[in-house]
Amino acid sequence: MPRILIFSVGFCLVGAAAPAQMLRVNCQTVGPQYHIVENTKLDYDSLMDKNGCRYSYTTSGITLEKSVIAKAPANGTLTQTGIASFFYTPKENFIGKDNFAVYVCGTGRRGKGSGCARFNYNVTVH
Predict the structure, then answer these.
(1) What is the DSSP string of 45-81?
(2) Nearest of 83, 60, 84, 74 to residue 121 by alpha carbon
(3) Which distant-in-sequence residues (6+ apart) come within 8 Å of 5 by Cβ?
(4) Rounded Cα gap, residues 7 and 30, in angstroms
(5) For domain 4-9+24-125, which architecture applies?
(6) Is the overall model pTM greater than 0.85, yes or no?
(7) Where is the secretion signal located (predicted)?
(8) Do 50 and 27 form a contact (C-beta atoms < 8 A)?
(9) I need a surface site. Which of 11, 43, 113, 120 has the fewest CB within 10 A?
């Protein structure tokens, strides 16, 4: 069955900066794999520094149709950066816990199944 995997990226390029101005992003996300066509609701834990974290969804065997912010974070900003990618940035000087949620929806090949998965993120900024 098709699966979506989440990747947290380790580097973020700030603007049109030269390599010496690259910003190191320290983030790690842990959670289960799932089948998008099962309309799953999943919880993930993210540990990150003040630079935030990128969340990107890839698929095998399904076409992503949309992804949306279902619940905005209280202590940061969640920006949609592509059809299936988001970037969380904590508020300046924030250290602590936050949470947010996104929906990712897709359809299987040849019309075999469709659904949305809800990803709930429990974030700790250190």
Answers:
(1) EEEE-TT-EEEEEEESSEEEEEEEEEE--SSEEEEEE
(2) 74
(3) 33, 57, 58
(4) 10
(5) Sandwich (2.60)
(6) no
(7) 1-22
(8) no
(9) 11
